[in-house]
Design goal:
- With about 130 residues, the chain is mostly beta strands.
- The chain has one domain (about 20-130).
- It contains one helix and nine strands; from the N terminus they run αβββββββββ.
- It has one helix spanning about 1-10, and strands spanning about 15-20, 25-30, 40-45, 50-60, 65-75, 85, 90-95, 100-115, 120-130.
- Strands 1, 2, 3, 4, 5, 6, 7, 8 and 9 form a nine-stranded antiparallel β-sheet that branches.
- A hairpin with an 8-residue loop joins strand 7 (about 90-95) and strand 8.
- This is Outer membrane insertion C-terminal signal.
- It comes from Belliella pelovolcani.
Length: about 130
């Protein structure tokens, strides 16, 4: 673990990590810098249905204290067959002037499963970017 963080610090990589509560599932994420125009992250959902999800986003509004983004999710739930597609609409608010690395995430997304009905997912979370 120490070696991983040493490599991250040496390469000046910008990696984000987050924890989100979206509807009935909790997601843990790791991804690229959310302040880039185009960013991505991998999410693991926990709870009743464990699954994985790739999220790709585009920042329509990029300011020092807030980002507004949309994009798409592609994922699977552990005990169901098939993939689902989602279209997130989110806001990342970075309220503390002394550290813009920490932010609050609010996201809403319709989810279009391939084998089951469509549903709506929304929630909040915390995100930190290692710079």
């Amino acid at each position: 673990m120490l070696l991983f963080f040493a490599v991250v610090m040496e390469s000046q990589a910008q990696i984000s990590a987050g924890v989100y509560r979206l509807s009935s599932a909790t997601f843990a994420s790791i991804g690229s810098d959310p302040d880039n125009k185009i960013f991505g992250e991998a999410r693991v959902s926990t709870g009743g249905r464990v699954g994985i999800e790739g999220t790709f986003g585009y920042n329509f509004v990029q300011k020092e204290e807030v980002n507004f983004y949309s994009g798409f999710h592609l994922g699977t739930e552990g005990n169901r067959d098939g993939l689902y597609l989602g279209v997130p609409l989110g806001v990342l608010v970075k309220p503390f002037a002394n550290t813009r690395n920490f932010g609050f995430l609010m996201e809403a997304s319709p989810i279009f499963p391939t084998e089951y009905g469509t549903y709506f997912r929304a929630g909040i979370g915390l995100k930190y970017t290692f710079r």
